[in-house]
Amino acid sequence: MSAFPPSFETLVEKFASLPGIGVKSAQRLAFHFLSLPDEAAQSFISALQEAKNSVRYCKVCQNLTDSDVCAICSNPRRDDRTICVVADPKAVAAIERSHEYNGVYHVLHGVISPLSHIGPDDIRIKELIARVTEHDVDEVIMATNPDTEGETTARYIARLLQPFNVRVTRLAYGIPVGMSLEYADDLTLIRALEGRQAF
User: Fold this and answer.
1) Cystine design at 58: which of 34, 70, 190, 194 (Cβ 3.0–4.6 Å)?
2) How many CB atoms neighbour CB 128 within 10 A?
3) One-character DSSP codes across the chain
4) DSSP strand pairing (103-107 vs 79-86)
5) Domain segments of the chain as ranges
């Protein structure tokens, strides 16, 4: 028999169902939520409902937005001739934090993963091909993760884009800053050597 009421246990279960949240973290979140003043708790609930009701996919790049076209795609200062292809909106946020990229994005909402029964038709590849076909695009940057699924997805899309007059590039990756070479795996070292630059 649980020491807490069923409604509390249900709240813990809901928090624990979120990615990266274990049972202990879920309990802490539930305790914290219940300790909030009524106004703060209601504000939290309202924010969840508002986000769920208003956030949707940009009709151009498939990123999250609360309008038809996201803030990046509608920004005239962004270079819409360069498209950075990412697996999910979290990758857009990561690249934007660098303040170095001034192009636009295309969010696939997944990667090709036969083991998970996710094929090319299950992610937003068709929308990317349509963008390249219909607009004057100079470069498509593949920024999927450097794992098996990310590599498979990047290579598949690169093959699809071959008939178009567009440059397809891949993000460089290699030895992380501050890492000792002795701890780098073989593939990381190979990629670092391949992506070496003059300085």
Assistant:
1) 70
2) 22
3) --SS-HHHHHHHHHHHTSTT--HHHHHHHHHHHHHS-HHHHHHHHHHHHHHHHH-EE-TTT--EESSSS-TTTT-TTSEEEEEEEESSHHHHHHHHHHT---EEEEE-SS--BGGGTB-GGGTTHHHHHHHHHHS---EEEE---SSHHHHHHHHHHHHHHTTSS-EEEE----SPTT--GGG--HHHHHHHHHT----
4) parallel
5) 6-54, 78-170
Q: How far apart are alpha carbons 159 and 34 in whole angstroms?
A: 52
The pLDDT tens digits for 42-65 are 999 999 999 999 999 999 999 999
In the block, which residue shows the tokens 């073989």? 186
Convert the pLDDT of each residue in 161-199 to its tens digit: 999 989 999 887 777 777 776 777 777 777 777 777 666
Q: Which two tokens stand for residue 92?
A: 């857009």
Sign of the torsion formed by the C-alpha atoms of 125, 128, 129 and 130? positive
Rounded distance between C-alpha atoms, residue 154 and residue 168, angstroms:
10
CATH fold group of domain 78-170: Dna Topoisomerase Vi A Subunit; Chain: A, domain 2 (3.40.1360)
Residue type, 67: S
Task: Report the alpha-carbon distance of residue 150 to residue 171 in Å, rounded.
Answer: 11
Answer whether 172's CB lies under 8 Å from 138's CB.
no
Class of domain 6-54 as given by CATH: mainly alpha
